[in-house]
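DNA-binding transcriptional regulator NtrC
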Amino acid sequence: MPSGQILLADDDAAIRTVLNQALSRAGYEVRSTSNAATLWRWVAQGEGDLVITDVMMPDENAFDLLPRIKKMRPDLPIIVMSAQNTFMTAIKASERGAYEYLPKPFDLKELVAVVGRALSRPRNVSTGANPSPENEDIPLVGRSHAMQEIYRALARLMPTDLTVMITGESGTGKELVAKALHDYGKRRQGPFVAVNMAAIPRELIESELFGHEKGAFTGATARNTGRFEQAEGGTLFLDEIGDMPMEAQTRLLRVLQQGEYTTVGGRVPIKTNVRIVAATNKDLRVLIQQGLFREDLYFRLNVVPLRLPPLRERVEDIPDLARHFFMLVEKEGLARKQLDVEAMDRLKRYRWPGNVRELENLVRRLAALYPQDTITGVIIDAELDSQPLLPPQPAGKGSQSTQQGSEGLSDAVERHLNEYFSGFRDTLPPPGLYHRVLREIEGPLIGAALAATRGNQIRAAELLGVNRNTLRKKVRDLELMVVRSNRG
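Predicted structure tokens:
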């Protein structure tokens, strides 16, 4: 049976009662209070084996109290609760020395489990807290459960140098997460260097990463500093790591294993001290099966995996995100706007193929183009529905369809895309077009393969030349209906 005295501080009497009952049933002695002054008096008197406290107390903010507690009793574990549920709340809890941060509402079983782990840990373990600049410019926005898990993971990673692999669709904010890891981590005083593998010609990637010596190849008229050298003492963010060519993968693996590299054309090994954060919107396990990505490099990079959810999986964050983006554009000089209930409902029902980036672009467009102070659902419908990927054919064009029935797939796609672009006249479509086009083609292709194999996903995966798990994920993401047949 577990034992120990818990000091509980929360201004809400109902919450104190529920937590008291749950912890008492688990075998702990609980002393509870509604203010920080009493909590501090108990701690100063040497009472308690663990503290559970809300952030917002009537007489003092717990974040101001935590440093005093840690200074007087550094081995006393502290669990912080908060209903604010922001990225900065999680980060501040970690920085002030909290053992764990729990966003309200939380599962009581989880709380009891956290208490058990905290009381069973060695008492001389340091939390690794770092003082940080008091910066309230929140880089990540959202209070959904999915984002709370991201915040908690980031808070645990801040005091470490562990390699992190961030996965997620295009536009989900992978670079923002990498930048937050740097800006609030132990390497914040060093440089943050971002490299997009997909934007560098394959033959120049090694030179870009590791630098080159004068005369190393045709056109190398002077020594070039690589990104590893530029990021020394800081963080190197390798975006779109799945697009890295195999030769560069081999050199990167050697750097991760040995902690040193040589420039292109150089002979002297150079020691490196950087934290690696990688990101991709691809399934690297599929690339490994296809022979396009090294499995040993994958395991070196995937020390701590972080998956960023697409916006359609966190629609409850859309109001906060929209307000955040409207505030940003207002600071840039555009008029203040707000969304009515119908407009917000329309945003929540949209699939957001371009994710958070697409929402930000929409907000900027709304702020710039519409004079109304309040954006209505009609305006949102006009904005979203005026940008279909493949415009519907006007009525009465059946003869044209018949005439075009013999054209090839490539010609048909090109024709439709030309019509799509012409619909924007002098402007451009919203960003993320590449993935939207692929998504539009993927659905009918996978649907046709499943229909041809009568819903047999093993045969359909073989027909398409993809991994079975990849096909299952595509079917789920594209929300395809699989109809299985016993015939054949």
